Amino acid sequence: MKILVAVKRVVDHAVRVRVRPDGSGVETDNVRMSMNPFCKHAVEAAVQLAEAGQASEIVVVSIGPKQSTDVVLTALAMGAHRGLVIETNERVETLAVAKLLRAVVDAEKPDLVLLGKQAVDDDSNHVGQMLAGLLGWPQATFASAINVVGDGLDVTREVDFGRVAIALELPAIVTADLRLNTPRNAALPMVMKARQKPLAVRPIAEFGVDITPRLTVEKVAPPPERSPGKVLPSVEALAAALKADIAELEAL
Ligand code: AMP
């Protein structure tokens, strides 16, 4: 089985996000960037399938500025075989990302495409579903377990009311949730080895996909500051405080 994994470079999840003073977006200059956490789970799942002898090649793709090579190198250090960066400094909306990934799928012909369930910068949760729609392939989103069974996959999905098990025929799209696995931290020799692996950087124009934005961002603003919590001395005091809060809400 050949696997394509899509990974996005985002502001590191440990960084406190700051909005640009002109409200045009989130500050990314001089901010630590890293692989979107859900994409790490997707890479780990692919590497585990390869280690189990169930995948023969893992290709990793990222769409973004040239520095996206960093997140592709991370995936190569984790065990992926080959990388591709589709380079652009423009903001690429989710439908255009899905169309670019479709072009990569057409060229690479993978049996399985693994993605994160969402990218934590915009929290869209679009691309896996859009790619499945564009390709007409079966999909399993929010995967917490992936097992190869015969010519297909059994995937456990995390949903609001618990877990759902579904069987998919290949080729298919699967998006990774947090409980799918524990992504490895690549040891130094793997990081060094990753630099020897093939990594192509290709301009976005080569893919013939229109990336003209369809959305206009009018203003980005930080959320209102939360008021500090209260420590109450007893359950009775908590009940009284809740009653007072409810009365206040009802009076609105
Ligand atoms: P989203 O729909 O934007 O929340 O992203 C869902 C998943 O799509 C991510 O976890 C990635 O696997 C993939 N994806 C989104 N944007 C990109 C990108 N620019 N480059 C590569 N993969 C991406």
Structural account:
This protein is of the alpha/beta class. It has one domain (2-207): HUPs (Rossmann fold, 3-Layer(aba) Sandwich), CATH 3.40.50.620. It is built from 6 helices and 11 strands. The protein has helices spanning 37-51, 69-78, 94-108, 127-135, 188-194, 235-250; strands at 2-6, 9-11, 33-35, 57-64, 82-87, 112-116, 139-149, 152-159, 162-169, 172-176, 199-203. The strands form 2 sheets. A 9-stranded mixed sheet has the order 9-8-7-10-6-1-4-5-11, sandwiched between helices. The longest helix has 16 residues, at 235-250. Bound molecules: adenosine monophosphate. Residues 6-8, 36, 38-39, 42, 62-64, 92, 94, 97, 115-116, 118-119, 122, 124-128 line the site of adenosine monophosphate (AMP).
Summarize the helices and strands and which ones pair or pack.
Elements (H helix, E strand, L loop, with lengths): L1 E5 L2 E3 L21 E3 L1 H15 L5 E8 L4 H10 L3 E6 L6 H15 L3 E5 L10 H9 L3 E11 L2 E8 L2 E8 L2 E5 L11 H7 L4 E5 L31 H16 L2
Parallel strand pairs: 1-4, 1-6, 4-5, 5-11, 6-10, 7-10
Antiparallel strand pairs: 2-3, 7-8, 8-9
Helix pairs in contact: 2-5, 3-4
Adenosine monophosphate (AMP) binds next to helix 1, strand 4, helix 3, strand 6 and helix 4.
